[in-house]
């Protein structure tokens, strides 16, 4: 491995010239796109052309801090510069190859043992968008030295949103990123292994490779909270992908206004998979058996549909509501419409047998007739999702009928709340998921071609079902870490979650090489693994940092923060949620610009982070205040502490007022 930084080096001079040429070409591509006239055959077509042009301009937007390329491959015959997006000159000649293109793969996968046709891999060092150095790795000659530029990029100070990792993707990560669209994958990723970035880069890769298909069906990213989404929201746009929906489970299921909170035991019960059966019974149990014949108007006469045939129609449709193949399940609202058409078609056949020839329009009018509507209202009534769930949670008789044999008396009592009007009901987040379940039984939810689910280890079975309804026939990328499972329904393995997401056969791909967390820090956090996740392999770090871990009795927190602030980068001061106000007050009183990280993820370079919001975030330096209080704050407090201890990229300082949790005592 050879690194060159000498300004007079002819290779460095040539690469700087190519960088300037690529930047000019990107500017020209943007100008050419801006000059396009949005003239379609009609107003709608012109509008769509304008929207497509705006998307293209956003994809080509130049970021002065992000160079057009970050690496180069050399086969001995030709070279390719690898960057975040394709860049070409005015003649159409490639100047930079998109990192997702097949010819870019050797940049990530080639090794001394398997050079994949390369004789050289070159990485570049940048400062403020200026090319300052390059590093050559000769393939096929046993050159297996580590890359200093690679380590520098990983360690580069964090500030603001999460960055892409296209310059540092490792072979095991690249294999997941480039997995086929039809393949669902579960990534069991230890802290710092880049699982979130891998999932986002897989979404970008699939959009590049299957753009036509996914443009129709869409890509959805589901995160644990708005702070997390705020942190990752710029990764895909940086890679040129702007049409990806990013949401949380709470936003995905926001069909009712959430005003209340559940006690922990109630929330766990509402998240239980058995609630799906209770809701299904409550909805489909409202269908009754026909009691009399129906007279259907058809071509000026009334045609009698006998009660026995009506019973058969209703029974057949109800059975389809239980079909095993989800694609064949009849939704409740569609069943009501189909029942009306069955009556109209019965009357049509009678008319045809008598020599008539009713038209399709006449048959549709018969299905909408007052007689047929009255029959459907009585036998197959239209239902409202929120109204049904409200009745289930406030009426003991309704709940008892639906929950018989599924929930015991104690569980039913736990679910019930005082009766009251639907308007102003104290809906909770768990209630919203139940309402969404019923809405999915009433009508089919719109599905995406690919869904990325992060921090999936914390999903309840009912939340899994809500995501599965948006998946339709598409594929999944499931991201998480069982050691970081902090919810009360967290499982010891991935099987239940994957089954709940509708993809039980999904392969689990482990990532155990940590790139973000220094070795000393990761080894310290790993002391908790025997208690929180004894079956998981221990994560290892690819880099070490002298002095990256400091464990000390509680000292003046402002002094610790000032010392850390002398080094560029972000600082996260993480504490138990109950201590946030006190910790923030102490820092502000000492003249430090501290702000609390909220649900929206908005905070400055010095953030006071409630422990419950730390998951998925990263800071250059982390101060953990009173780890024993974090561990004691919730039933899975040691899991939460493991999360908190693995947020640092460079330095972790642990301040403890009393005894440390036993597993952390040296």
TrEMBL record:
<dbReference type="InterPro" id="IPR000212">
    <property type="entry name" value="DNA_helicase_UvrD/REP"/>
</dbReference>
<dbReference type="GO" id="GO:0005524">
    <property type="term" value="F:ATP binding"/>
</dbReference>
<keyword id="KW-0378">Hydrolase</keyword>
<dbReference type="GO" id="GO:0043138">
    <property type="term" value="F:3'-5' DNA helicase activity"/>
</dbReference>
<feature type="region of interest" description="Disordered">
    <location>
        <begin position="349"/>
        <end position="368"/>
    </location>
</feature>
<dbReference type="InterPro" id="IPR014016">
    <property type="entry name" value="UvrD-like_ATP-bd"/>
</dbReference>
<dbReference type="GO" id="GO:0005829">
    <property type="term" value="C:cytosol"/>
</dbReference>
<keyword id="KW-0347">Helicase</keyword>
<feature type="binding site">
    <location>
        <begin position="189"/>
        <end position="196"/>
    </location>
    <ligand>
        <name>ATP</name>
    </ligand>
</feature>
<protein>
    <submittedName>
        <fullName>DNA helicase IV</fullName>
    </submittedName>
</protein>
<dbReference type="Pfam" id="PF13245">
    <property type="entry name" value="AAA_19"/>
</dbReference>
<feature type="domain" description="UvrD-like helicase ATP-binding">
    <location>
        <begin position="168"/>
        <end position="518"/>
    </location>
</feature>
<dbReference type="GO" id="GO:0000725">
    <property type="term" value="P:recombinational repair"/>
</dbReference>
<dbReference type="GO" id="GO:0003677">
    <property type="term" value="F:DNA binding"/>
</dbReference>
<keyword id="KW-0547">Nucleotide-binding</keyword>
<dbReference type="InterPro" id="IPR027417">
    <property type="entry name" value="P-loop_NTPase"/>
</dbReference>
<keyword id="KW-0067">ATP-binding</keyword>
<dbReference type="GO" id="GO:0016787">
    <property type="term" value="F:hydrolase activity"/>
</dbReference>
């Amino acid at each position: 491995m050879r690194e060159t930084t000498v300004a007079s080096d002819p290779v460095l001079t040539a690469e700087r010239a190519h960088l300037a040429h690529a930047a000019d070409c990107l500017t020209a591509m943007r100008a050419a796109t801006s000059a396009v006239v949005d003239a379609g055959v009609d107003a709608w077509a012109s509008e769509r052309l304008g929207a497509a042009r705006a998307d293209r301009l956003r994809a080509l937007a130049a970021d002065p801090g992000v160079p057009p390329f970050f690496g180069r491959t050399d086969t001995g015959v030709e070279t390719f510069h690898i960057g975040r997006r394709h860049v070409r000159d005015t003649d159409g000649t490639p100047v930079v190859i998109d990192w997702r293109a097949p010819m870019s793969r050797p940049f990530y996968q080639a090794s001394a043992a398997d050079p994949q046709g390369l004789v050289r891999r070159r990485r570049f060092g940048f400062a403020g968008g200026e090319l300052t150095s390059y590093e050559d790795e000769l393939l096929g000659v046993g050159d297996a030295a580590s890359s200093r530029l690679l380590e520098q990029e990983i360690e580069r100070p964090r500030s603001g949103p999460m960055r892409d990792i296209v310059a540092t993707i490792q072979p095991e990560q690249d294999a997941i990123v480039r997995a086929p669209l039809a393949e669902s994958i579960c990534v069991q990723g230890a802290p710092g292994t880049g699982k979130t970035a891998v999932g986002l880069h897989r979404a970008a890769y699939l959009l590049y490779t299957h753009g036509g298909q996914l443009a129709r069906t869409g890509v959805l990213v589901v995160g644990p909270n708005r702070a997390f989404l705020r942190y990752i929201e710029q990764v895909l746009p940086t890679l040129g992908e702007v049409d990806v929906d990013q949401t949380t489970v709470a936003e995905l299921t926001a069909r009712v206004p959430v005003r209340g909170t559940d006690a922990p035991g109630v929330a766990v019960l509402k998240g239980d998979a058995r609630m799906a059966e209770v809701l299904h019974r409550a909805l489909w149990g409202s269908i009754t058996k026909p009691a009399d014949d129906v007279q259907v108007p058809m071509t000026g006469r009334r045609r009698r549909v006998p009660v026995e045939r009506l019973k058969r129609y209703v029974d057949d449709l109800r059975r389809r509501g239980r079909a095993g193949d989800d694609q064949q399940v009849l939704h409740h609202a569609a069943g009501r419409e189909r029942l009306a058409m069955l009556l109209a078609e019965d009357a049509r056949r009678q008319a045809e047998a008598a020599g008539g020839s009713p038209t399709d329009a006449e048959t549709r009018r018969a299905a909408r007739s007052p007689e047929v509507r009255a029959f459907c209202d009585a036998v197959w009534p239209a239902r409202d999702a929120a109204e049904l769930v409200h009745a289930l949670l406030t009426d003991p008789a309704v709940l008892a009928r639906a929950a018989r044999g599924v929930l015991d008396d104690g569980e039913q009592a736990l679910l019930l709340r005082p009766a009251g009007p639907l308007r102003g009901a104290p809906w909770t987040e768990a209630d919203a998921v139940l309402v969404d379940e019923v809405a999915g039984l009433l009508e089919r939810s719109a599905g995406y071609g690919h869904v990325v689910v992060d921090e999936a280890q914390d999903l309840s079975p009912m939340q899994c079902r809500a995501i599965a309804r948006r998946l339709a026939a598409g594929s999944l990328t499931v991201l998480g870490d069982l050691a970081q499972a902090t919810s009360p329904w967290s499982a010891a393995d991935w099987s239940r979650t994957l089954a709940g997401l509708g993809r039980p056969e999904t392969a689990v791909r482990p990532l155990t090489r940590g790139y973000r967390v220094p070795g000393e820090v990761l080894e310290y956090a790993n002391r908790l693994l025997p208690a929180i996740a004894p079956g998981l392999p221990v994560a290892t770090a690819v880099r070490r940092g002298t002095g990256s871990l400091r464990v000390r009795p509680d000292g003046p927190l402002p002094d610790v923060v000032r010392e850390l602030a002398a080094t560029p980068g972000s600082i996260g001061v993480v504490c138990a949620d109950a201590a946030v106000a006190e910790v923030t007050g102490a820092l502000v009183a000492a003249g430090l610009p501290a702000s609390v990280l909220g649900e929206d993820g908005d905070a400055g370079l010095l953030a006071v982070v409630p422990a419950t919001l730390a998951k998925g975030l990263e800071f250059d330096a982390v101060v953990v205040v009173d780890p024993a209080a974090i561990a004691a704050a919730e039933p899975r407090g040691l899991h939460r502490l493991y999360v908190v201890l693995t947020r640092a990229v460079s330095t972790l300082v642990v301040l403890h007022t009393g005894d440390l949790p036993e597993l952390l005592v040296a």
